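User: quick one - fold this with magnesium ion bound?
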Amino acid sequence: MVKCKCWALSTKKDEDKLLEDDDSEQIIPLDQIIPPAIVQFLDDMEREKPIRFTSQQVRIATGSFCSILGSGGFGIVYKGIMSINKYVAVKVLNGTSNKRIEEQFMAEVSTIGRIHHHNLVRLYRFCFEPSLIALVYEFMVNGSLDKHLFKANQGEMIGFDKLHEIALGTARGIRYLHEECAHKIIHHDIKPGNILLDSNFCAKVADFGLAKLCNREKTHITMTGGRGTPGYAAPELWMPLLVTHKCDVYSFGMLLFEIIGRRRNMDTTLGDSQQWFPIWAWEIYEKNQLKELMIDCEIEEKDLEVVERMLKVALCCCQYRPENRPMMSVIVKMLEGLLEVPEPLNPFTHLFSGSNQPNVSATRMSWNVSGSTWSSSV
Ligand SMILES: Nc1ncnc2c1ncn2[C@@H]1O[C@H](COP(=O)(O)OP(=O)(O)OP(=O)(O)O)[C@@H](O)[C@H]1O
Ligand SMILES: [Mg+2]
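Assistant: Sure. Structure tokens for the protein plus magnesium ion:
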């Protein structure tokens, strides 16, 4: 008799049985046993909201946590498999569980799990047990954008036409969170590490809703209720000011600068004037010296128009005052070229306190080297 392991699409009872019976010899996809219409129905049911996993199921899906994809402020991310050709990324969250936070967790997870958009990473399953809290996401073959943007080998860089599509896809994903889904969601941590790329290099925003779920102390700041990664976090996140969805717009602007420069915004190995890319880019823009930007960022003539548009949008997004930053729907239209980008004002005047030189300690507050350096000169 052929044993089959197809619990991703089976009932809870079947799943438990199959998990007990883990010495399966041959794996047969469920769609070879059950009529396609039923598989489709079960698939649709599954898509509706995330399903609960036991810690044992998580362990089996990840092959006892044998393949690490990466780690971040929330915990470690493992590669896993749910059924044939259905790979997943399992994020094991730091922290402990108890009955009180379980309710809140379930509420948040159910919100995140019901959000479906082409440019947002799907949450399939979750686990909440005293020994393990984990989220099971769709697997993104091409990993996160930072790995492609900050490659040492310039020859393998993604071209600007694709980067523009990635920026646009990201903007559409954030627009959905801010303006289109039933529960308005502020991401709080937009950065290249949270933009994942599928097999076609289509951008999907990851980790939305997590800011509400977890507290991250090691690599992320938590002040006045707001959170974010240094270098991408808007100024109001470290000041006693109201935090709105405009903090994501600021971070998106910082992300755009990194896309244009195909480098981290802060690079201490470069000369003083270029160490912090956003200020350098503003000066280039102000003096209308785009030729210099083209040479330094290896931008070809054919891409100049689209890069200039992205630069102007980035400068609009990083305005110091949240109310001066555009809404994501406006940003999408500007990136699509359907709306003219207004002439941006200098977003960094607050960093120049009376002199022509940027205030170094203030600048440090806005940057981050590899996500790890956070100046305490605040
Ligand atoms: N769904 C996924 N598919 C493929 N790889 C993923 C997926 N989710 C995460 N990863 C990989 O795991 C790495 C770590 O992700 P993680 O979200 O834990 O950290 P981060 O994004 O760098 O920081 P943060 O904690 O602020 O989100 C990512 O950089 C990415 O390479
Ligand atoms: Mg992440």
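One thing worth noting: Residues 1-25, 216-226, 360-378 have pLDDT under 50 and may be disordered.
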